[in-house]
Amino acid sequence: MAKLRFVSYAFRSMNPRKTYESDVSWWWTAPIFLVLGVLWLGRARTQVAPEVSVLKSDEKWDHMVSGIRQMAEQYNGDVGVYIKNLKTGRAFEYHTDHTFVCASLIKLPVMIATFDAIKEGRITLSTRIRYKKEFRRDGSGHMKYARPGSYYPLSYLIYQMITRSDNTATAMVIDLLGYDYLNQRFEAMGLQATRIRPTGMSLASRLPNPDLDNYTTPREMAGLLEKMYRHQFTGDNGLNDLMLEIMKGADAPTRLKKNLPHEWQFARKTGLLRKNCHDVGIVFSPEGDYVLCVLTNGYAENYRVAKSLISDVGRETYQYIGNAS
């Protein structure tokens, strides 16, 4: 019953509909999140994958690894890949400690830090934030068109930040928490390469600069995802599950989602900035759940090349996952 009350409250406070003319209305949330609520309550919590009695054969694993390694080596740029079976612990790593410009992947640890602040009682999902002109950011998202003076619940901003990668919503969340708090939480999460700074949130075109940009590694992104999956953030209070359900709302059928079987779920976050193109997430499949992270830097002609590489890595992985021995 306690979880039911929490989910009901969380769904009331989220609203993925556009609203530029007035404040966000609470009662709009129910029909939009009804299906999500049924799925979440039906599970009670994110379940670990069903038992798989036999590991897929080494031959099939080696075939997958060989194919992905060849793709990465032929790519005109840097590639980092991390794949891990969350049941067996079996993993494939390729340049997982290389640093990449975060781009919008930074929004993943920002969300986790925000939920930490909620757990600590600093803020709540219903905390209302006033939109001001200085929050406006170009790029992804529609909130740059919001009316100054409008108020938005924090839950709405989190949803837009993750599912639509809304840069304006992100600026509002960051302003609420502050860079010092976020970096403290990043360190507490065990992150070493991943930090956030104001200059790193700039969309201006420039050469990567370690003194200006936000950086991360495939290993650190994968570590965050696994800890979330295992309920190691915020405690076992439903907040880890809520973060995963929000991430499942990022449903653009591109990159790692392009070749995903329709019946599988994918909780993900993408990033795209200054020749860096990424996709990271957790694949929920009948054969088991996997962390899957692909980060790239550099491209032959345009971002389509990087996106194609990422989708090809996804296809190779899904063929392995779905091909039980």
Highlighted features:
alpha+beta, 325 residues, disordered N terminus, five-stranded antiparallel beta sheet, two-stranded antiparallel sheet, 40% helix, 10 helices
Give a structural overview:
The chain has 325 residues and is of the alpha+beta class. 40% of the residues lie in helices and 16% in strands. It contains ten helices and nine strands. The chain has helices at residues 2-13, 29-43, 58-74, 107-120, 154-163, 167-177, 179-188, 218-229, 239-248, 303-321; strands spanning 78-85, 91-94, 100-101, 128-130, 151-153, 215-216, 265-273, 276-285, 288-297. A hairpin with a 2-residue loop joins strand 8 (276-285) and strand 9.
Task: Please report the total strand number as a whole number.
Answer: 9
Count the helices. How many? 10
How are strands sequenced across the largest beta sheet? 2-1-9-8-7
Label the overall shape: globular
- The helix content, as a percent range, equals 40-55%
